[in-house]
Design a protein that fits this description.
The complex is a heterodimer of chains A (170) and B (116).
Chain A (H helix, E strand, L loop, with lengths): L1 H23 L4 H15 L8 H9 L4 E2 L3 E4 L3 E4 L3 E7 L9 E8 L6 E6 L7 E7 L5 E9 L4 E12 L7
Parallel strand pairs in A: 1-9, 3-9
Antiparallel strand pairs in A: 2-4, 4-7, 5-6, 5-8, 8-9
Helix pairs in contact in A: 1-2
Chain B lengths: L3 E4 L9 E8 L21 E8 L2 E8 L8 E7 L4 E9 L4 E8 L13
Antiparallel strand pairs in B: 1-2, 2-5, 3-4, 3-6, 6-7
Classes of the chains: A alpha+beta (170), B mainly beta (116).
Chain lengths: 170, 116
């Protein structure tokens, strides 16, 4: 049932791509089509809210996952989804024995779920980061961190976005 | 073209954990937006940014389309040695950007290290 739905949607997209390519033509558009192909995989087909499992499972796999030690801070209301300041603090001694190795910023609604992946180590001294992200609509954002022992910790926060990034994507 | 700015504290003492702010000038075109003629703007984002200190990796980030234009990254580093910091990043158009900074770390003996 679900796969049939997906394939039908896929077919519609293929048709749309074909018309796009024939109507505009041109050599460099072939690369644009490649982009559209990417869009069908990561974009339009997933313009919905992902479940928590869907978001974290590819990274966590069979490791343990607990909600602790990570503090994610985002504005509760972001006026402009094109630039949302995001900062996170992770409680970790950051020593050779126990440190944070990776930090993943995950979005529930963006066409590409992974917003950024950071690689840290004992040389960092402190596992705090901040950056500015794009968010396409109201959603919850997850900061997922991997400890050096292989376990995962996370924090999530809901954010209301008045003007979404990637407007064309709906 | 792409360039970047780095902010570090004016005085860094050995053993300190200090904050670095890196601002890279880059459009980070997501590939989802269209220009005024309705043509899709090709995706062009930084794929990989690596920071090394004296050839040793100290920070790495792999942004995707989810990072805002002119990405800002704030991170921390434990001051161990003075040396050449090199930031290099590559985007979808295979453009390689580079920023060098000479990091000066003062020895800890003279004054008490101020934690940041």
């Amino acid at each position: 049932m679900r796969s049939r739905l997906v394939s039908r949607r896929h077919a519609a997209l293929r048709l749309w791509q074909a018309t796009l390519v024939t109507s505009i033509g041109g050599g460099w558009l072939r690369t644009a089509q490649a982009q559209v192909d990417k869009l069908t995989i990561t974009g339009l087909a997933e313009a919905r809210l992902r479940s928590f499992e869907e978001m974290v499972r590819p990274y966590v796999q069979s490791q343990t996952l607990t909600k602790e030690a990570v503090t994610l801070s985002l504005p509760m209301l972001a006026d402009n989804g094109h630039m949302v300041p995001l900062s996170l603090k992770i409680d970790s001694p950051m020593t050779e024995e126990a440190h944070i190795t990776h930090v993943y910023l995950l979005s529930q609604r963006n066409p590409v779920p992974l917003m950024a992946k950071f690689v840290l180590g004992p040389w960092s001294g402190r596992a705090d980061l901040s950056t500015r992200v794009r968010l396409s609509g109201n959603q919850s954002v997850i900061a997922l961190a991997r400890r050096s022992d292989g376990s995962f910790i996370y924090d999530a926060q809901e954010v209301v976005v008045t003007e979404a990034a990637c407007v064309d994507n709906g | 073209m792409s360039s970047a700015r780095l902010q570090v504290p004016p005085r860094i003492v050995q053993g300190d954990v200090f904050k670095l702010r890196l601002l890279v000038n880059h459009p980070m075109d997501s590939g989802f937006l269209r220009d005024i003629d309705g043509v899709l703007i090709q995706r062009n984002v930084i794929r990989h940014l690596l920071c090394t200190l004296n050839g040793r990796e100290v920070f790495r980030v792999e942004p995707t389309t989810g990072v805002a234009a002119n990405p800002l990254f704030e991170f921390y580093l434990r001051a161990t040695e003075s040396g050449e910091m090199l930031f290099r990043w590559v985007d979808d158009k295979a453009y390689i950007g580079e920023l060098r900074h000479h990091l000066v770390v003062e020895p800890a003996n003279a004054s008490k290290p101020t934690s940041n």
